[in-house]
Design a protein that fits this description.
The N terminus is likely disordered. Helix content is about 80%, strand content about 0%. The chain is globular. It is built from 21 helices and no strands. Helix 6 runs antiparallel to helix 11 and helix 11 packs across helix 20. It is an all-alpha fold. The protein has one domain.
């Protein structure tokens, strides 16, 4: 019996080793992450387990067999409809008219517009791509350094998946088996803190570098821009309000948001034409397919780690060293910041959530609180060199070399790190609003 147990343990070790070694080798040779993970899972399972080949396919399919995950393509569709419908222009115009007259007003408007648009798209990349071109052109025309405008745009896009709705919160909630609705509510205060902290940095740099002011908007201009934006701004109110009141689930809220965005663009504003719909749908399908494929392969990766009790061993190892939740969160923040800067956020979420959630729960950390911390870390990574996704998206839409954007984004990461510390060590700020809904 002991020999059999030892043999089983040896096979499990070989299985996990094959998984990591195969993944590392393929990643070194620049294979796309999702394919590298999928091939590593196949090699580990077929080579070092009695599971038949059909089991690999079943594992991949099971990874995306979740009603909650239906929200992802629907939120992606909502963002596409908002961008095509010209709603991003209205939002930036409103932000500019409200605060454009103060020192560095267009830079402040950049951040405020990201906060407003984040309540509709749920995606940092959608924010960077949709608002980025408009914001950077406006700031460049008023005399801002183009690379500074691009750096701020990349940093402010990190707010997108924190203020609800949020695609990363949907992924975390589905894997961690916690309420996506509560995660949405928990992101409101941290998202506001991110925006305010970025505005604080803009104010400091604006005084030092003499950022220009925009001409003060008249009350008529403010009213006109508010009137054209108010229906769009109701999107997060409908989503969060519906979830709070129990009218619909987060997945149903995503469907409502998509229908509402379509009505705004096609019926009310008439900025979306019938000829635009095939392109919007194809773009949504392509993006959704990529996300779904990543979820499928990485769920197989996570399943192997759970099957071989890697998470349990991690919990035992960490709790043997310390059970202080403050220390645990400090270490996890450092690890997640590094991973977020070098890996796609969705991949990290799917890989590590099933491992880290039992760890944080074992030391008394609320999984809703940790979900916000984890996503916030990874969203900072979206704007962090060397391979933050928003950096490349902003470079693409602005025509500015990504190396210049990497240097310019660094000052704006400082307020995001400060926000992360506040969110980490003051959990009541995160859990207050979800507590009201309990």
């Amino acid at each position: 019996m002991q020999d059999r147990a030892t043999s089983g343990k040896g096979f499990r070790t070989l299985m996990v080793s094959a998984l990591f070694i195969t993944f590392a080798v393929l990643a070194i040779f620049s294979m796309p992450i999702a394919f590298a993970i999928g091939i590593a899972v196949i090699v580990a399972i077929l080579g070092f387990s009695p599971i038949p080949p059909i089991g690999v396919v079943q594992r991949f399919v099971t990874g995306v067999d979740s009603f909650v995950l239906l929200a992802i393509p629907l939120f992606i569709l909502t963002g596409r409809l908002m961008n095509t419908g010209g709603i991003t222009d209205d939002i930036f115009r409103l932000a500019r008219n409200l605060i454009g007259h103060i020192r560095g007003g267009l830079a402040h408007a950049n951040v405020l517009a990201s906060m407003l648009f984040s309540g509709m798209s749920g995606s940092a990349v959608a924010d960077a791509g949709g608002l980025g071109m408009i914001e950077i052109k406006a700031m460049r025309d008023q005399g801002y350094r183009p690379e500074m405008a691009a750096g701020l745009t990349a940093a402010s896009s990190a707010i997108g998946p924190i203020i609800p709705p949020s695609i990363p919160f949907v992924i975390y909630g589905a894997i961690a088996e916690v309420s996506v609705g509560k995660l949405f509510l928990a992101g409101i205060v941290p998202g506001a803190l991110m925006g305010l902290s970025l505005m604080g940095m803009v104010a400091v740099l604006g005084r030092r570098d003499g950022y220009p002011r925009f001409t003060r908007a008249t009350l008529r201009e403010i009213w006109t821009s508010l009137r054209s934006s108010v229906l769009s701004l109701l999107t997060p109110v409908i989503i969060v309000g519906g979830i709070l009141l129990g009218v619909f689930t987060p997945t149903e809220a995503a469907a409502v948001a998509a229908v509402y965005a379509f009505i705004l663009g096609f019926v009310i504003f008439r900025t979306i034409k019938l000829r635009d719909l095939p392109g919007i749908i194809v773009d949504t399908l392509i993006t959704s397919s990529v996300v779904t494929f990543i979820i499928a392969t990485t769920s197989g990766f996570s399943w192997i780690l759970v099957l071989n009790q890697v998470g349990a061993q991690l919990v035992s190892g960490v709790t043997a060293a310390t059970e202080n939740p403050l220390v645990v969160l400090f270490v996890l923040n450092l690890a997640l910041l590094v991973l977020g800067a070098v890996m796609e956020a969705g991949v990290v979420l799917i890989l590590l959530t099933p491992i880290l959630v039992p760890l944080v729960v074992s030391v008394g950390i609320d999984p809703i609180h940790f979900g916000v911390i984890m996503v916030l870390n990874l969203m900072i990574g979206v704007a962090t060199p060397p391979i933050g996704m928003s950096l490349f998206v902003v470079s693409e839409v602005s025509g500015i070399r990504v190396e210049k954007i990497m240097r310019s984004v660094l000052p704006f990461l400082i307020p995001l790190f400060i926000t992360l510390l506040i969110v980490t060590y003051f959990p009541s700020l995160v859990l207050f609003i979800p507590g009201l809904a309990s």
